[in-house]
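Quick check before the chapter quiz. The format below is the same one you will see on the exam, so make sure you can read both the input and the output lines.
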Amino acid sequence: MKKTVFITGAAGGIGAACALEFAKNGYNVAIGYNTSDPVPVLEKIKKYGVVCNAYKGDLSVYDEAKGIFDRIKSDMGDIGCLVNNAGVSYIGLFNTMTPNMWQKILAADLYSVINCSHIAIKDMLKVHSGCIINISSMWGETGASCEVIYSAAKGAVDSFTRALAKECAPNGIRVNAVAPGVIDTKMNAHLSSEEMNALTEEIPMQRLGTPEETAKAVYFLASDEASYITGEILRVNGGMI
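Here is the expected output.
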């Protein structure tokens, strides 16, 4: 029987690449989305012959997240793997931000991770099996000027990952995170060519990473090849850290 993975924020970027990587490896895929169109990734997944459904909702609202999990379970069975990828960023000085702005970032980047993990582990505990992979960021480790709240949220995701991994390990549930560096996604589309060139020069590998490279790291942590790995924050940043 095929396993089911739920990937949040999977309509584009790293999330969509993860959805394709899991489908390629025989997983049934539940795609979480809120504003982006999931149809393009759904169409790409069809060729792999797996079940793939899309579920719209705001995962930072607990009851809404719970409703999505219930629908996935009804449509596709138990979720064996959760990839918490949904998130937003904001570039700007902290002293120009408003409380509403940072609440939006914390909701998408932290609260959705907590909500989805809390819901997912209830069923995983029953079968003493499962894995959770959180998409963090290198800025969660080092902090980034003009991305203060985003850095704070991702730093919290790292700590949450390590703590939950310790708590869940005796029950056969693994919890890890992938911390990408500068990845070629829409999140970096605001940068000018000059800014992008300057940023690339700071990366030892002299290029941006791809969503597909990040997805392969995520899938590795979900696979049996990583059966003795938990509580790890796997850096995918071209040597930048």
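If your answer matched, good. The first strand starts at residue 4 and ends at 7.
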